[in-house]
Design goal:
CATH topology of one domain: Rossmann fold
CATH superfamily of one domain: P-loop containing nucleotide triphosphate hydrolases
Shape: elongated
Structural class: alpha/beta
Strand order of the largest sheet: 6-5-7-4-8-9-10-11
Number of helices: 13
Bound molecules: guanosine-5'-diphosphate
Number of strands: 11
Length: 370
């Protein structure tokens, strides 16, 4: 990595120099206030010293080209490509069946319930959640009633729908300031642009942006591009003071959408700085953005990393890139939180859906109804 030190009177000026010199892929490694010049220790000038770096040979991540967009009414399963795949799938299913039979049993182990349980587990629904749902279905049926598999799945769908609360776009704007947090690359900035456009077009709201994501120059540039396209103001906040001043400056706007640092969420410093912003006295709602492409266990772990931050709801992105939807119920059922939006593609603003229980039901059950 090429690393250089910059000294400038302010952070924006330092960032400008870095962008010109190292390009937009530069990252800020460290920044601090320094005093220089002066005479006999007097009249020293305050400057900002920034250490920035850029990788001259970045590893190319091959971004998958997305052609297929999921419509939330029908869920397909990918057919095996050859005979070996088919056999492998069957062995995996057999193994799951044996594991299940060795494990804790359902309240009724008839085949239709076992099959429904397998379907949920295949969808990466957490075992405890899957069993809770199937046992609820077992409890609901009339005594000794024999249910078809379709009927079981239909009742599974009803149970899911009953447990999930709908999200209304109007509750998004209860607070003027709305902050979006989450790991790098999940799609925060893209989602913010989609939400901004939706609020402007559907609710005639006056929208403004603030970004506190000053770690990567490219991240600021990306939001700047959206700000230009949507013709909304963007303030860049390098400190808590800047953030408070930006919110003050944008008071005339109906909604202020805040993009946050795209750092590694495992760094406690990142979560800590988010907590400071939340504790700054400015009333705001925080949405946690998670990518549905991650494994169910990883999604839960990420959620828990943000445990100390009060969250209004979660947003799941990249729904179009997976066929396993278990987290859409694992998170609301086990972490007691609603899902506000789903995003299903890269197009701004079209690929944004207000999450409702029926969409989730269809994803999970594969639209199986009696
Ligand atoms: P951030 O680092 O969290 O701000 O993420 P970005 O907004 O920069 O998005 C990272 C990448 O994910 C970009 O290539 C986006 O186009 C892509 N992306 C965002 N949302 C979606 C989505 O719903 N589906 C797909 N397939 N890609 C998405």
């Amino acid at each position: 990595m090429k690393v250089k030190k910059y000294i400038a009177p302010s952070m924006p000026e330092a960032m400008q120099k870095i962008r010109k010199d190292l390009g937009i892929h530069a990252v800020i490694l460290q920044s601090k206030e320094v005093k220089s010049g002066g005479f006999l220790g007097l009249f020293k000038k305050k400057n900002i010293e920034v250490i920035a770096g850029v990788d001259p040979n970045p590893i190319q991540t091959s971004e998958k080209k997305i052609e297929k967009k999921n419509v939330p009414t029908k869920v397909e399963t990918v057919p095996p490509t050859n005979e070996n795949d088919k056999i492998l799938t069957e062995i995996q299913q057999l193994k799951k069946m044996i594991d299940l039979q060795q494990g804790e049993q359902l309240d009724d182990n008839r085949q239709e319930f076992q099959l429904a349980l397998h379907h949920l587990l295949d969808q990466e629904v957490e075992e405890t959640v899957a069993k809770e749902i199937i046992n609820a279905v077992i409890k609901k049926r009339k005594k000794d009633e024999v249910l078809s598999y379709e009927r079981v799945m239909s009742t599974v769908g009803d149970y899911i729908e009953e447990k999930l609360k709908p999200f209304h776009l109007s509750s998004l704007t209860q607070n003027k300031v709305i902050q979006f947090v989450g790991p790098t690359g999940v799609g925060k900035t893209t989602t913010i642009a989609k939400i901004a456009a939706t609020l402007m077009l559907k609710k005639s709201k006056k929208v403004a942006f603030i970004t506190t994501d000053t770690y990567r120059i490219a991240a600021i540039e990306q939001l700047k591009t959206y700000a230009r396209i949507l013709d909304v103001p963007l303030e860049v906040a390098y400190s808590l003071g800047d953030f408070q001043a930006a919110v003050e400056k944008l008071q005339d706007y109906d909604v202020i959408l805040v993009d946050t640092a795209g750092r590694n969420f495992r760094e406690q410093k990142y979560v800590q700085s988010l907590r400071e912003t939340i504790a700054s006295g400015i009333e705001m709602d925080t949405y946690l953005v998670l990518a549905l492409t991650a494994k169910s266990k990883d999604i839960q772990e990420t959620f828990d990393q943000f445990d100390s931050i009060p969250k209004k709801a979660v947003i799941f992105t990249k729904v179009d890139e997976t066929t396993q939807y278990g987290s859409l119920i694992n998170i609301p059922f086990t972490r007691n939180i609603d899902i506000a939006f789903l995003t299903n593609g890269q197009d701004v603003p079209d690929d944004l859906l207000a999450c409702d229980a029926e969409i989730v039901r269809n994803f999970i059950t594969g639209d199986a109804r009696e």
